[in-house]
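Long-time lurker. I teach an intro course on protein structure, and each term I like to show students one example going from raw sequence to a predicted 3D structure in token notation. This year I'd like something fresh instead of my usual example. Would anyone be willing to generate the tokens for the chain below so I can use it in lecture? Attribution to the forum is fine with me.
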Amino acid sequence: MKKILSVFFNIDRVYLAGLTLDESGVSLDYINSTIHHVDLENINTEESVNGIAELNKFFFEMNFDPDEVSVTLPSESVLVAKFPGKKDMTEDELKRLLNLEISQVYPQCDEEDFSKYVIPLTPNDDKLYQIMSVIVPNEDFNAINQVLQILNRPVFRYDITQLNAHTCFLYNYPEFINKTVLFVFIQGQFMDISVLQNGAPIYFNLTALTDFNQIGEILEHEHAKIVPSYVSEIDACFYFGTGINKQVSLTLWETASLLGIFEAKRLNAFRMLKTSLSKREKEYCSRTFHIFPACVGAALVPQHTILRV
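-- Reply from a regular --
Happy to contribute to a lecture. Here you go:
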């Protein structure tokens, strides 16, 4: 049995989920969120200080003693890039690509100031093979360790929102593991679009969202890039994130239906989880299940290939 506290440093709040993993499955045994957010690039602002104070109070009071801690970072807070690639790329080739990206975006910094990993995006057509990179300033990890030091527990993994949401989905929706599924993550001024085929990531894009009235148009545009170039059809669409409200959900459902995707709904992070939560906490979960996919997925075994470089 292992108890994992999942901490999601999102752009609006910090979300917490305590999960117990054993041979019988996964149990949700703690859930909470701050009112203030914590900016890992500046933890000394009034907002961050208030968020950290909330976290310390939670950690002191929570009836959940984790063995390990897992961290989720929103895509907006890290450098996520895509490169055309090939399946037999060497580690040196990958390093050169990532270091070139760092030098272009952070010309004043040294490549050793960042932690880097890549995820292969592997559609059936090798010509579309791409490498998705995640680059995080080491200063962010120093901030994370400082914020979480009161727990005195190791941070055993970190990943970004979309990838942890994939892991959450594959656990909670096993009937879709052999399907082609489109994911839409909306919050702030960004939409993350990704596709899983047979449980493996084959497409990812992060696009700006300056007007919520454009959501349907953006989804149509992304669908046109994906079908038929990457896949012949999409079986289902799941959407999640703090930007999902009743109107946005309706827009996504209507747009998906027009595109021939008739299975379209919010992603339920708690669908297959057992729980020991109170009635009040369960009611909170029923309202927020579309916000917690990344937080839940962070505590599970990743289902995508991660190459550290």
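Some talking points for your students: The CA atoms of residues 126 and 281 lie 47 Å apart. DSSP finds eight helices and 15 strands in the chain.
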